[in-house]
Design brief:
- 30% of the residues lie in helices and 24% in strands.
- By secondary structure, the protein is an alpha/beta fold.
- It has a single domain, classed as Nucleoside phosphorylase domain (Rossmann fold), CATH 3.40.50.
- Strands 5-8-7-6-9 form a five-stranded mixed beta barrel, surrounded by four helices.
- The protein is globular, with a radius of gyration of 17 Å.
- The two termini are 31 Å apart.
- The structure holds hypoxanthine.
- The site of hypoxanthine (HPA) has 14 residues, from β5, β8 and β9.
Length: 272
């Protein structure tokens, strides 16, 4: 399996001119791509996903499809502006190709972000939820298929995926929620009955990404932190019709707070 990544790895090494091993990879979900304009981020090199051999390319608005080598203060980072989703028609293994590539690049810390619908009735639009755990059983497991022992074991444990210490430290400084994220396939949003089901199952937020990436990262030994921006109330049974535009707008309206929390998380991960 390793051979599948060689061309992409060579491409990144030749085009990003990494002078230091990236310490953290940050994956930016819907509407969050602008963080790279933060005054604290210094972009060193940029490639489009479409240039990277075998790299999946996002077709979704709000996912700009650039892989960036940058510094946040002293910390070298890879920033992925956007991701691909299972609902775009990619296989689940293709969806997690970037995670394994990051792992082979030597990245040890993964900071995942997304926009999510609130299942927990105490959550409000604009809240930030640190992911403490997830429910993956509505999407195919990305580790299905032959196991490459170079990445990890055949049957990896999935407790303690998300770094609790970082979550606690973020919550000491920022008023964030904590909760369980459930990944569904999408692309249709949930029905009220499905949201009641997710509530019964113990989910606090729902989305169409992140979990398969976290599983793959945990399999190859990465330290994972996940942040969801609550973009809508998933259990909304009013006449309001949720749309991708509403999701993007909610993220846009809360962008500065999200950027602050992401930057704080980067600081914490960098010193730990
Ligand atoms: N459901 C699924 N995915 C989402 C939602 C939602 O309500 N909001 C943002 N992504």
């Amino acid at each position: 399996m390793y051979n599948e990544y060689i061309k992409a790895l060579d491409f990144l090494e030749n085009n990003l001119h990494l002078n230091n091993k990236p310490k953290i990879a940050l994956i930016l979900g819907s509407g969050l791509s602008d963080i790279i304009n933060s005054k604290n981020i210094e972009v060193k090199a940029k490639v489009s996903y479409s240039e990277i051999p075998d790299f999946p390319v996002s077709t979704v608005e709000g996912h700009s499809g650039k892989l960036i080598y940058a510094y946040y203060k002293q910390t070298p980072l890879i920033i992925m502006q956007g991701r691909v989703h299972f609902y775009e028609g990619y296989s689940i293994q293709e969806v997690v190709f970037p995670i394994r590539l990051l792992c082979l690049l030597g990245v040890e810390n993964l900071l995942l972000t997304n926009a999510a619908g609130a299942v927990n009735k105490d959550f409000r639009v604009g809240d930030i939820m640190a992911i403490t755990d997830h429910i993956s059983c509505f999407v195919p497991n990305p580790l299905i298929g032959g196991n490459d022992d170079n990445f990890g074991v055949r049957f990896p444990a999935m407790n303690n995926i998300y770094n609790n210490m970082i979550i606690e430290k973020i919550s000491q400084k920022y008023d964030i929620k904590k909760g369980v994220y459930c990944q569904l396939t999408g692309p249709s949003y949930e029905t009220p009955a499905e949201i009641r089901m997710l509530h019964t199952l113990g989910a606090d937020a729902v989305g169409m990404s992140t979990v398969v990436e976290a599983i793959t990262a945990k399999h190859c030994g990465m330290n994972v932190v996940g942040l969801s921006v609550i973009s809508n109330i998933a259990c909304d049974t009013s006449d309001n019709q949720i749309s991708h535009t509403e999701v993007q707008q909610a993220v846009e309206n809360n962008k500065q707070k999200v950027i602050d929390v992401i930057e704080y998380a980067i600081n914490l991960i960098a010193i730990n």
